[in-house]
Design goal:
Elements (H helix, E strand, L loop, with lengths): L14 E4 L4 E4 L3 H4 L55 H8 L6 H11 L1 E3 L15 E8 L18 E9 L6 E6 L10 E4 L5 E4 L22 H12 L5 E5 L1 H10 L3 E5 L3 E3 L4 E3 L2 E5 L1 H9 L9 H21 L6 H14 L1 E3 L5 H11 L7 E5 L2 E3 L9 E3 L1 H12 L29 E5 L6 H12 L6 E5 L8 E4 L4 H11 L6 E3 L11 E5 L22 E3 L8
Parallel strand pairs: 3-14, 4-9, 6-15, 18-19, 18-22, 20-21
Antiparallel strand pairs: 1-2, 4-5, 5-6, 7-8, 9-14, 10-13, 11-12, 15-23, 16-17, 20-22
Helix pairs in contact: 2-7, 2-9, 3-8, 5-6, 5-8
Length: about 550
């Protein structure tokens, strides 16, 4: 369908060159206008600039430009491509899915807007596949090129806000997991491409008591977004397919391009440091005020980064709702303006570094309804190694559960029922000394079976647990196989190990030799003995979460 609502027009024919102005613009219905109408001046969204050269961060960089890093086009002024904290794949997808209405010339124009980074094997080369998609949305706090308006003008930027956006294989739901910037974690070694085209590996940093923090995975030591992708995989065990990154200026431009983001406040939000001053009630937030809103901490109850993450999640959800409901996708001029702003704001990995590839990805992931997009935050606790808590550490028990939900492609939206498998945990339990079990290691962790046997024997009082060595093959999940007569032993062992009901696998047989061992196979979800195993079937109500369709007032 063309811009006039006709079905028989090739989209590539909708944009024409006006010889009087040299600008590209929408073709009008010539049956009504009698040919090409006279050009009028209505602002930037009425005319399409001629195609420009593609900006990349790889081969062909000018002297002094570092390959593998975003590159600015001379004469354009400050970069408009930093801080992704406001733009998830869900809302970006809605913008880019409709870019195709512009035809070839518009594709070329938008391609010229994009900045790309070659992340090597940190991500996937496939744009769209049959399985789940994991998209990393990075918000950098770089102040370079911003004239000192937001602090240190020489700040190269860190991973200030990071969201792992997981879209399910069937495209019915998505989970957006925010990763707090102040998590103390190891930073893996990272290969990057230098000015001479050679690959240089930036050394990793092992985790200490209070350093390094996750946000150092970007910027420090020349680390690029591919390094942040590797850090996320190392931290969560979840492979990342692609990344998108934008900045402070992008926050202002994108919020303005959508016509403002509607937010309801249950109380005033006032922060002298970010200059935010909003009364209680309804507000339409855009431009500089939008940046103040998402940067504020001191207006929030606990004045913490974790509170700011929740506020940003609500803002992103409101932006998604605005794009879906405002008619932007059916209005060619609004659509062009928004897509132009979005592509100017983006830095992406080279595997999705064209509008055609982004459109393919966007068409795929934008199928998810807002009510099935769930925001949550990687569970953390205050760092016990600090008297004054400035950093956090991963809450391993709760975090591993969330990681398993994502890796197993389990939706967080609309899940309230208790899993049936929990019934296996109900009933009498055998005494610890009567439990007979053989432990096999399918986790990939060296010595896991041996360590678990020692833990069961020395701390839990299990009678003579046996080390079965390595399992026949790697196991994705921890399982306990037992006979009907061993059910009381299985329940006792499950309570000791923190096994979910789904890990208990009653065998179809019965009987067996007296004193026979149950078979406990440690899987990839196992971390160490004594740490509960995440249950992908369990109700995740203990996770902080909100859906993108949540329009209630922010308290």
């Amino acid at each position: 369908m063309d811009t006039q609502g006709r079905d028989d027009i090739d989209p590539a024919d909708q944009w024409v060159l006006d010889p009087a102005t040299g600008s590209y613009r929408l073709r009008q219905d010539q049956t009504r206008t009698g040919g090409l109408p006279r050009q009028t001046t209505r602002g930037a969204t009425d005319a399409v600039p001629p195609p420009r050269g593609r900006r990349t961060a790889g081969a062909g960089c000018p002297p002094g430009r570092r390959k593998g890093r975003p590159v600015r086009t001379p004469g354009r002024g400050p970069s408009r491509r930093r801080k992704a904290l406001l733009w998830t794949a869900g809302s970006m997808g809605l913008v880019l899915v409709a870019v195709g209405v512009g035809g070839y010339l518009v594709y070329e124009h938008f391609n010229g807007n994009l900045t790309t980074v070659d992340v090597g094997d940190a991500g996937s080369k496939n744009v769209v596949g049959k399985g789940p998609v994991n998209l990393l949305v990075i918000g950098t706090d770089s102040r370079q090129g911003l004239g000192g308006r937001y602090g240190d003008a020489d700040n190269v930027g860190h991973a200030d806000t990071t969201i792992l956006f997981h879209v399910s294989a069937d495209r019915t739901n998505a989970t957006a997991m925010s990763i707090p910037r102040d998590i103390v974690t190891s930073i893996p070694a990272c290969p990057t491409v230098g000015e001479d085209g050679a690959t240089t590996t930036i050394p990793g940093i092992p985790a200490g008591l209070t350093t390094p923090k996750f946000n150092e995975s970007l910027g420090v030591g020349g680390r690029d977004p591919g390094c942040t992708m590797r850090a996320v995989t190392a931290l969560t065990g979840i492979s990342v397919d692609h990344f998108m990154m934008v900045d402070f200026e992008a926050v202002k431009a994108l919020s303005t391009a959508v016509g403002g983001v509607d937010m309801c406040l249950a109380r005033p939000l006032v922060d002298p440091k970010s200059h935010l001053d909003l009364s209680a009630g309804q507000h339409r937030i855009e431009g500089e005020q939008a940046l103040e809103f998402v940067r504020t901490r001191h207006a929030l109850r606990n004045q913490s980064d974790l509170d700011r993450i929740k506020l940003q999640q609500r803002f992103i959800g409101a932006m998604i709702r605005k794009i879906k409901s405002s008619g932007t996708l059916t209005n060619p001029r609004k659509l062009f303006s928004l897509a132009d702003t979005a592509t100017r704001a983006l830095t992406v990995d080279s595997a999705i570094g064209s509008v055609s590839k982004l459109s393919s990805l966007a068409k795929d992931i934008s199928k998810v309804d807002a009510k099935h997009i769930t925001f949550t935050t990687l569970p953390v606790v205050d760092n016990p190694n600090e008297k004054v808590h400035a950093t956090v550490v991963v809450d391993q028990g709760r975090a591993q559960r969330l990681f398993t939900l994502i890796k197993d492609d389990v939706s967080l939206s609309g899940r309230r029922k208790r899993p049936r498998s929990e019934t296996r945990l109900r009933g009498p339990r055998a005494a610890a000394g009567d439990v007979r079990v053989r432990v096999l290691n399918g986790s990939g962790i060296l010595g896991a079976a041996r360590g678990t046997v020692a833990w069961l024997r020395d701390t839990q009082g299990v009678g003579a647990p046996a080390n079965g060595g390595n399992a026949p093959a790697p196991a994705a999940r921890t399982t306990l196989v037992y006979t009907r007569e061993q059910a009381d032993q299985a329940r006792a062992l499950a309570a000791m190990m923190g096994l979910p009901g789904s890990a208990l696998r009653p065998s179809s047989g019965s009987g067996g030799a007296p004193g026979a061992d149950m078979a406990l196979t440690l899987g990839a979800d196992f971390t160490r003995a004594g740490v509960p195993i995440a249950d992908p079937d369990a109700d995740p109500d203990d996770l902080d979460r909100t859906e993108a369709d949540n329009s209630s007032c922010v308290s």
